[in-house]
Amino acid sequence: MNNWKSGAIAFQFAFWAVVFTINLGPEWQKYSSAREVVEVVGLTTLLQMLVALVAVRLLVPRWLDRGAVIGFLGMLLLMLVVAVEINVLVSYLYLEEAYPDSYGAYYLKHLSAMSPLERLGFSYVIKYLLLSKLPLLAFPAAVLIAVDYYQRQRTLLTLKERQRAAELEALKNQLNPHFIFNTLNNIYALALQRSTQTAEAVARLSSILDYVLHHGSEPLVSLRDEVAMIEAYIALEQLRFGERLQVDFRNEASPDLQVPPLLFLTLLENAFKHGVAKSLREEQIEISLAQQNQQLCFEVRNSVPPGSSDLPSDKAIGLRNLRRQLTLQCPGAHQLTVTHTDKQHTALLVLDQQCQSPIPASSLTMKSSAAS
Length: 372
Fold this sequence. Notes:
Blueprint: H1 2-24, H2 34-62, H3 69-98, H4 104-110, H5 116-119, H6 126-192, H7 198-215, E1 221-222, H8 223-241, E2 245-251, E3 257-259, H9 265-275, E4 283-292, E5 295-303, H10 317-329, E6 334-340, E7 344-351, E8 357-358, H11 361-371
Parallel strand pairs: 2-4
Antiparallel strand pairs: 1-3, 3-8, 4-5, 5-7, 6-7
């Protein structure tokens, strides 16, 4: 916070120093003394600061932020006119007499016959005021309003990104217990059968949980690691269902791609839950992972037991969370299609190029070295 305040103060100091230099202009030698420079140029700069302060702190939040553009412009114009009149009054009452041979030379020669009211704009001199003084006093305020708008947009984007990250993390936290619960049920079924494969199932679950804990919170993981998790999950389910489960997993995608973690797990779980667990006969699951036209396609097909009405619904927590996770991580860069017939259920997830990218060779080398 202190660094932010120091940066803001430094910006304001540098900004107004530049404005003062611009006001001084290339003909700085026309001033008779340093005091005249400070008083004449300082007056203009002080009025510019006043206009900018009121505009940014009062007019923008009270009118512009509420969509009242005409009201904002009207109040800004009124404030500028007041600032111009203050400039004219100070010039007439003090500066022209204090510096008659330099600053006051033009005014005393050409405008000395004018009354104070005429000097304040009730004459042809109003043209000069509008064409020179108003833009001069307005330009710092315009710059600071633009800077303030940019900073607020950056803050808003940062808040939205934090909100998106928090929501995504919450979705993953919902997904992980959901997955663990289903897998523990599988191991429980093996234990009830006093299967010799229970220990192997626990080992498979351990490797999957290790992946979830270490990679589940990462924005992107290598497809190689994601496929290893998928294969471990398939092996775990095959231990549970034995010979009545036939799984065909074809992987033709590059392992060097990066994808958001745990996107495929929900579709895989649904295939086993609704295609095999509800059946007493031999069932088949076909899984394919391929690249087509710079898109990564993950498809799961499972046979449907006769008379089964237990099919995954978009209202189910798994698919609902998956769709929300895709919206947050791959907005506009994904397509999820779930279809079913009396004999087959199909889920197809397509990720566009924006949702996957190659891993640099250096990263792979570092990861391999760490693993070894």
